[in-house]
Amino acid sequence: MIQEAENPPYLNDFLDYMITIQNKSKNTVKEYNYDLATFLRFLKMHYKLTNEDDLKMIEFDDVTIDTLKKVKLEDLHAFLGYLTKNYNSKATTRSRKVSSLRIFFNYLCQKNLLEINPTQNLETPKIGKRLPRYLTLDDSRKLLDVASNEDNRNNERNYAITTLFLNCGMRLSELVGINLTDIVWDECQLNVIGKGNKERTIYLNKACVKALEEYIRVRPKTHLTADAEKALFLSERKQRISRRMVQEIIYSELRQAGLDTSKYSVHKLRHTAATLMYQYGQVDIRALQELLGHESISTTEIYTHVSNNQVRDAVERNPLANL
């Protein structure tokens, strides 16, 4: 929830612009608000405009445009350094802060509130490429076996959820937002709303269609609210299922399958779907990009890694291996 009363007017104007003109999602705008609130609090401390030394306790609604006019590249570096030293901020977190600052200062310059953009030469922190963690094919089958177990409550619903994650690679937010009308049965298609409110089409394979049909057959149909009537997945309270509930379902399945919940999560199922499609389905990287809803092909390229077994096999196939 955005706390507009705590923000200076120009920050609320910026957030409104992001929502109404740039069509950013509520979650994205909430992140902008958090990042920029942190920055404005830091400025008051950095410029000695407050005696408060607890960053989270600093009020920032009185930070003026004149204060922002003083910001230089060195101050931005000081902000990122402060986050690193005091909050052990990771490179990915600092990278998001840099992105928020760039967009914010670009907006202020566009509106002629600032003449000089201090983020013009601000570099993005380098992020080391890490291989995505994912379930093996056998582990994925174990998870589906657990989800389909008739001894578990709501097994049809939970199996359909797990099947969509492992076959389609959708995000958690995309899954909970699915409405019944988003399914195009004749075309075996599913329309989802991804990051930035961008709609994309996901094609459903036979396993997904069958799992959805079996769930819809037992899905509650009476005493539903207006939103629940539209929603595909419902909770036991006959409301649209929440993100938290889906996370609990997957964690429970992981535990029952004997898989480490400190290593795997809902998002790791997205990695799993992408990796299995690339490794076993010989999927073109551009098609995978489209399926996952990535803006940049570089994001999708993390799935082009090969397993250690494949590397070992490549060495063993060297014609000189048996000399």
SSE layout and pairings?
Blueprint: H1 9-20, H2 26-46, H3 65-69, H4 73-87, H5 91-110, H6 137-148, H7 155-168, H8 172-176, E1 183-184, E2 189-193, E3 199-203, H9 206-218, H10 226-230, H11 243-256, H12 266-281, H13 285-292, H14 297-300, H15 308-316
Antiparallel strand pairs: 1-2, 2-3
Span between termini = 67 Å
Shape: elongated
Sequence of strands across the biggest β-sheet: 1-2-3
Strand content: under 5%
How would you state the average pLDDT, rounded? 88
Main sheet specs: 3 strands, antiparallel
Question: Can you walk me through this structure?
Answer:
The protein has 323 residues and is mainly alpha-helical. The chain folds into two domains: 4-110, DNA polymerase, domain 1 (Orthogonal Bundle); 137-309, Orthogonal Bundle (hpI Integrase, Chain A). Helix content is 54%, strand content 4%. The chain contains 15 helices and three strands. The protein has helices spanning 9-20, 26-46, 65-69, 73-87, 91-110, 137-148, 155-168, 172-176, 206-218, 226-230, 243-256, 266-281, 285-292, 297-300, 308-316, and strands spanning 183-184, 189-193, 199-203. It has a three-stranded antiparallel beta sheet with strand order 1-2-3. Helix 6 (137-148) runs antiparallel to helix 7 (155-168). The radius of gyration is 24 Å and the shape is elongated. The N and C termini lie far apart (67 Å).
